Amino acid sequence: DYSQTDLRVLAHLSKDPVLTDIFLQHGDVHDTTARKIFHLRPDQEPTPAMRKCAKVVQFGILYGMSPFGLSQALSISDEEARQYIHSYFSVYQGVKAYIDQTIAEAKQKTYVKTISGRKRAIPEFVSSRKNVQQLGERLAVNTTVQGSSADILKKAMIDLYAGLHDTTSFMVLTIHDEIIVESPEAESEQVIGLIREKMEQAWSLSVPLVVHITTGTNLGELS
């Protein structure tokens, strides 16, 4: 499965220098976010609770979560949630600019495109209802990021399918950002190398695509 595909796509699309550098240096994005949100000193380590909070904030902002939604998810006050969001955007200013620009363009065009050029109409922007327009804003950002991640996975599947022709192994299914491959043990080493190659080279981004591969005799052992 891919490692943090959505955040890597976000780094590529937003060109945010901080987020980009984390992935170029193979850093821990949630660790960095936790340190910034909680204003930790260099000698302080984020607690598991801080990391969890940073992860919720990171993905919550990406998927359009409001301060109220974030406060509910973390069981904190609305004011704390607003402060976390403010702290996040003060660090990842390029992400904030990207979100604002994406929404503005989507309102004008009433559609967005993924990294491969797939178009999604967003008629919610022509609605007179504010909550529907807000849904359109979330869809605009979510589609460009998650839709682009889906494009990358589909490209990886096409490339991997072609590569597996010379083996007796085959793809079984996909689960979100995972590809499940059934392979005889004798081919496992070859196929693991092929999977890593095709998935990590499926798309050229400004940050590396990273794949984690696990093996097992059944699907339960892979989770």
Fold and architecture overview:
The protein is mainly α and 223 residues long. Helices cover 59% and strands 8% of the residues. The protein has ten helices and four strands; from the N terminus they run αααααααββαββαα. It has helices at residues 5-14, 17-24, 29-37, 48-62, 67-74, 78-91, 93-109, 130-163, 188-200, 219-222, and strands at 111-113, 119-121, 170-175, 178-182. The strands form two sheets. Strands 1-2 form a two-stranded antiparallel ribbon. Strands 3-4 form a two-stranded antiparallel ribbon. A hairpin with a 2-residue loop joins strand 3 and strand 4. Helix 1 packs across helix 8 (130-163) and helix 8 (130-163) crosses helix 9 (188-200). The longest helix is centred in the middle third of the chain and has 34 residues, at 130-163. The radius of gyration is 19 Å and the shape is globular.
Q: Which band does the percent of strand residues land in?
A: 5-15%
Oligomer: single chain
Helix tally equals 10
Order of helices and strands: HHHHHHHEEHEEHH
Largest sheet: 2 strands, antiparallel
Spatial strand arrangement across the major sheet: 1-2
Residue-averaged pLDDT: 93
In the predicted model, the low-confidence regions spanning at least 5 consecutive residues are: none
Instruction: Choose one word for the global shape.
Output: globular
Give the % helix: 55-70%
Quickly give the structural class.
mainly alpha
Number of strands: 4
Q: What is the radius of gyration?
A: 19 Å
Distance between the termini: 11 Å
